[in-house]
Amino acid sequence: MDKKNYTIDYIKNLGAHRTEENLILLMNLFEQDLPVEIKREVVSSIGRHNDNEKIIEFIEDNAFKNSIIMEYVYQMFRTCLYKSKSDERFKNLQFRILEFYKNEILNKMQEFYDYKQSDHRINKNKVINPLLLIGDCEKTLLSLPDNCIQLAFTSPPYYNAKIYSDYHSYNEYLQKMKNVFIQCNRVIEDGRFLIVNVSPVITKRPGREFESIRYPIHFDFHKILDESGFYFIDEIIWIKPEPCVKNRIGGYEQTRKALSYKPNCITESILVYRKKCPFLLDKNINEYKVYDKFKDEAIDTTNCWYITPKSNKNHPAVFPEELCRRILKYYSFKGDTVLDPFAGSGTFGKVANAMGRIPVMCELDEDYVKLIKGGKVKYDVRN
Q1: Mind listing the pLDDT tens digit for each residue in 272-304?
Q2: φ and ψ at 197, to 5 degrees?
Q3: Neighbour-count burial for 112-126, b at 16+ CB within 10 Å, e otherwise
Q4: Residue 148 and residue 144: Cα distance in Å, rounded?
Q5: What is the rounded end-to-end Cα distance, in angstroms, of the chain?
Q6: How buried is 64 (Cβ within 10 angstroms: 0-12 exposed, 13-18 middle, 19+ buried)?
Q7: Would you call 17 helix, strand, or coil by DSSP?
Q8: How far, in Å, are 51, 362, 373 from residue 48 at the CA level?
């Protein structure tokens, strides 16, 4: 047969009809120079056959070659996972593959498979009413039960950028944020989202003869979010109108001297992370029988959101309501309990309540607590 006629459907058919002739043909096809997607299906179809002796020999001969493409290894490992239930030799082989590659995708496959073998339900706890936790959120979050939050969205205090945020060192700041994210991970339901609005900050120069430091907070947050039990899903870019941001380009416009270029920063990062879990997002979605579908509304089709920031005399970095609305629309359902561990003036809670969610707000600053208490949302309060 001409190589051009080797289609995915043709290969799948060879796997569905488990004859000795088809198994030999598939093994011969694996030795040919075929497109990766075809050979990937060849490996998968080999695994569907019943001759375990030949399949083990095939995996032994190919899985541990340094030149092999990992797509093929994943399919061999998948075969080992499912055949290990009835043949102990495949279980030994799967452990050898894990040990040989020390690969994160193989580890994830193992985790998902182990989870599927047992009956697990998502453990939910419920917060009934809007709740305001007053104090340091690292401590006040301890009063919440595990798995009671379906979405957390926040903008942490930027490192020494505002009067309400002062830390002895950047490492101390990152450790504090990590401690908070660990608590967020505990209270967030398995598989649900933590979303963090953040951008680089620059410290003031301690004197004209010293250089300021610009901190890439959005990059450094990935490590602490990963270590706190979340994995990366998306980065959404919040784009602001240029007149709304600080002018950094003025000096270069006047001198046009190379090396002095500093562009106006019109973006912030919306970091979308999911709580680590051994199941697909479908499991979370299927918990709901009724969905907010927002059929008549436009949707954001890219990861660039154009939203004008809001100013507030009572807070230096207030969330725009439109930003909160989009986050709630895309990452939560009506009736969900949603958290902002750094609530500030409480915009997220206000929008969440209006959209039928149950807000849980954490705030340390007494002035901001007064603002939240004086708003339209009626919170139960804990100190």
Answers
A1: 999 999 999 999 999 998 777 777 788 999 999
A2: -90, 120
A3: ebeeeeeeeeeeeee
A4: 7
A5: 75
A6: middle
A7: coil
A8: 9, 53, 62
